[in-house]
Each structure stands twice: as structure tokens, then as C-alpha cells.
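INTERNAL AUDIT FORM
Audit reference: QA-55
Scope: verify that the stored structure record matches its stored sequence.
Auditor: D.O.
Record contents follow.
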Amino acid sequence: MEKLWHISGGQRRAIKTSNTFGVQEQSLLRQTRLVGFKTAAKRKLKEAASRSDNLCKHVADNGKMCNHRKSTKSTHDQDFCYKHQPK
């Protein structure tokens, strides 16, 4: 008997089987890998969205967004970086 690991709802449990390369075992392992992939993709999208919330709102003439972080000074407009403060 071999043990395969199955992750269900954030909990890891062992699956005892005598056939590691069986169709059912492989499909179960594939499902757990896909669940992990989906959660990692969601986490990356959330991190990218939070990063874009911290970027300057200035758009150049060519249509590109400024990639500097927003200013944190209290005397500045906090939606823009140090370079693109409104006059």
C-alpha cells in the first residue's frame, strides 16, 4: 500500500492505494494540482491589482501610464508621483 496525498479544502490527507498509476488516482492528483494552480493565479491577479493601485495616475502623450509609486507626502497630491505633481 502506498500513500498519495490529496488536498481538500486546505487540509492534506493521505489516500491509501495499491495502484499509484491507476486512472482514478491520477485523476484525483490532477484535480488537486489544478486547484492549486487556480488559487495561485487568483493570488497573482490580486497582487497585480494592488500594485496598480499604488501607481501614479499620470498618462503620457503616447498613452503610457507612469510606473512610479504614488507620493506619500502630505503636502503633495497623493494620486501622483513626485514627477507629475499638478502645479
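Auditor finding: record pair retrieved intact. The mean pLDDT is 77.
Action required: none
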